[in-house]
């Protein structure tokens, strides 16, 4: 902490490095097209490092990561945080154990979100990769990945997410025609959850193509 900043600038630098390195790899997979997607890491009890709105997420530099408080207000900057900041900060505010939130726009996430929007969820069942989710120890389980309607009204979307969170522990949700939110206690866990969702959605879409889906 310095006299002039209400956060530790070295902590911001470490969070920014972690976001830049990981997001570059996600972008190389085509999961962040056309400046889409946003990413954040918790810095401390009240501050969050988050991507600046509109930046090319595959080419992030330190200046593209800013600080907001858990209410979503910019801290010591005039930069504009992600248009979807509220979807990040609502998670940090409610769950002190959450340390990282990742949002991507892959083709699989977007197509699956449209195919399953009417059902409101995609059932992921019987896959070994379900063990990638914290707390799961067997393939012999099921996870319903919720699909919410898209809107540009973030408070409205956030209130729908709050209702989902009331239903019990979860590691992500889809937004129709939009993409995926996934989170974890730290970057490694959030990324593992994101990659697991992406893989399982690809499997479900392939099963549908083969006419073998029970979903
Ligand atoms: C470029 S279209 C995608 C955006 O509307 C939004 O969904 C998104 O993910 C990125 O917004 P951003 O404000 O850069 O965080
Ligand atoms: Zn988005």
Automatic annotation (TrEMBL):
Name the domain of life. Answer: Bacteria
Which residues does UniProt call coiled coil? none
Question: Any note on cofactor binding?
Answer: Binds 1 zinc ion per subunit.
- Class II aldolase/adducin N-terminal domain span: 17-205
Q: Binding positions for Zn(2+)?
A: 103, 105
Q: Cite the InterPro entries for this sequence.
A: Aldolase_class_II_sugar_metab, Aldolase_II/adducin_N, Aldolase_II/adducin_N_sf, MethylthioRu-1-P_deHdtase_MtnB
What EC numbers are recorded for this enzyme? 4.2.1.109
The record's section on SMART domains has: Aldolase_II
Identify the pathway: Amino-acid biosynthesis; L-methionine biosynthesis via salvage pathway; L-methionine from S-methyl-5-thio-alpha-D-ribose 1-phosphate: step 2/6
Q: Which cofactor does it need?
A: Zn(2+)
- Which reaction is the catalytic activity of this chain? 5-(methylsulfanyl)-D-ribulose 1-phosphate = 5-methylsulfanyl-2,3-dioxopentyl phosphate + H2O
Q: Which UniProt keywords apply?
A: Amino-acid biosynthesis, Lyase, Metal-binding, Methionine biosynthesis, Zinc
Entry keyword annotation includes Ribonucleoprotein:
no
**HAMAP family assigned:** Salvage_MtnB (MF_01677)
Q: Tell me, what does this protein do in biology? A: Catalyzes the dehydration of methylthioribulose-1-phosphate (MTRu-1-P) into 2,3-diketo-5-methylthiopentyl-1-phosphate (DK-MTP-1-P).
The record's similarity note reads: Belongs to the aldolase class II family. MtnB subfamily.
- Can you say what this protein is called? Methylthioribulose-1-phosphate dehydratase
Q: Which gene encodes it?
A: mtnB
């Amino acid at each position: 902490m310095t006299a002039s900043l209400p956060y530790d600038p070295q902590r911001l630098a470490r969070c920014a490095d972690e976001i830049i390195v990981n997001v570059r790899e996600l972008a190389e997979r085509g999961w962040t097209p056309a400046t889409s997607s946003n990413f954040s890491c918790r810095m401390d009890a009240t501050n969050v490092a988050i991507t600046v709105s509109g930046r090319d997420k595959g080419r992030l530099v330190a200046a593209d990561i800013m600080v907001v408080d858990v209410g979503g207000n910019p801290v010591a900057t005039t930069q504009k945080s992600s248009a979807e900041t509220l979807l990040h900060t609502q998670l940090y505010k409610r769950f002190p154990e959450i340390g990282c939130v990742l949002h991507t726009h892959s083709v699989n996430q977007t197509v699956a979100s449209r195919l399953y929007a009417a059902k409101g969820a995609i059932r992921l069942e019987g896959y070994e990769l379900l063990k990638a989710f914290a707390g799961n120890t067997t393939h012999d389980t099921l996870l319903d990945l919720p699909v919410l309607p898209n809107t540009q009204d973030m408070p409205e979307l956030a209130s729908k997410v709050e209702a989902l969170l009331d239903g019990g522990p979860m590691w992500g949700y889809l937004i129709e025609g939009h993409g995926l939110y996934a989170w974890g206690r730290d970057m490694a866990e959030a990324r593992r959850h994101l990659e697991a969702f992406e893989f399982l959605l690809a499997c479900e879409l392939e099963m549908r193509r083969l006419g073998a889906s029970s979903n």
